[in-house]
Amino acid sequence: MKLSKPKNMTFWISVLLAVLGLLGALGVPVLAGFAFWLVLIGFIVLALGNLLEGF
Fold first, then answer.
1. Which contiguous run of DSSP H or E holds residue 1?
2. Are 55 and 45 within 8 A, CB to CB?
3. Residues 43 and 35 sit within 8 Å (Cβ to Cβ)
4. How far apart are CA 2 and CA 22, in angstroms?
5. What distance in Å separates the CA atoms of residue 48 and residue 45, rounded to the nearest whole number?
6. Torsion sign across C-alpha atoms 34, 35, 37, 41
7. Cβ-contact 13, 41 below 8 angstroms
8. What is the pTM of this model?
9. 27: alpha, beta or left? (left if phi > 0; alpha if psi -120 to 50)
10. Do 18 and 38 meet the contact criterion of CB atoms below 8 Å apart?
């Protein structure tokens, strides 16, 4: 399996999702219920960016 560099937009979207998840875990009420899912989706987006060419 050959990994590729994710596009800049894919990387920044995954970082944004991870930061929102972290803020939710730290107690922001609006994000608290979704903290785990935001971090998980951010990781999945980043993994797809590495696994798929042009994502």
1. none
2. no
3. no
4. 30
5. 5
6. positive
7. no
8. 0.89
9. left
10. yes
Report the distance separating Cα 7 and Cα 33, nearest Å.
29
Report the C-alpha dihedral over residues 10, 3, 38, 17, rounded to 10 degrees: -30
Q: Which two tokens stand for residue 4?
A: 């590729």
DSSP for 23-50, please give it: HHHTT-HHHHTTHHHHHHHHHHHHHHHH
pLDDT tens per residue across span 7-34:
999 999 999 999 999 999 999 999 999 9
